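Materials and Methods. Structural model of Precorrin-6A reductase. The 248-residue sequence of Precorrin-6A reductase from Acidipropionibacterium jensenii was retrieved and submitted for structure prediction as follows.
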Amino acid sequence: MDAMDVLILGGTRRARVLARQLVDEGVDVVTSLAGVTTSRRPLPGEVRVGGFGGADGLAAFLGDHAVKALVNATHPFAATMSQHAAEAARRLGLPLARLQAPSWRALPWSTEWIWAAGHDAAAREAASLPGDILLTVGRQPVPHYLAPLADRRVTARCIDAPEGPLPAGWTVRQEKGPFTVDSERALLAGFDVMVSKDAGGSRPDAKLTAARQSGTAVVMISRPPSPSYGQQVTTPELAAEWVRSTLG
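The predicted structure was written out as tokens:
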């Protein structure tokens, strides 16, 4: 892999849309994936998979490949990667844009949800509520919920199955979206509580709309704080505009 204009830290739909737009414009772009999810959609342009070795490794990669602009389009909960990106870019004086959807806190009915400051807090909140529970937090955070919800009926919906044994009352539902409001409402008919993360967006996604229609209690995990370094953008179009301006 030689010199490149733009490195996208990807793994999200917004990263994929941005890569498509930049490739179509003839920009030299590489998308980097952590490799956590084993099944993924094809990506436009060049792709690398694997970690960098912390902020030091990322800074070395950026310098070795003469990267001109860095776009962090990872999930809003990829806190460690975001910290490493900001630290490496700051160290090199490299332009950085953070591409992520606006928080769902801006929705008028987000006040109806139970907000939790992390997975451990979300597990305690879910345990305090009656009924069956649907976890929509992904595979990696599942261990936070095992002990608090060991005696409950829980379904964990993930793209890839969690590692290790699960309590007797637990099941795994391996699915990949996008989902419709109708399908989510049918699913939620069997649950009283849904635990989710503030992935964000200008509108609620299908499961949140379905939960409100079904009267399902929602425990929502707040985002970790974002590093202050870099330009914040909310759409791939704005990120592409930033890239064009940065590259001149």
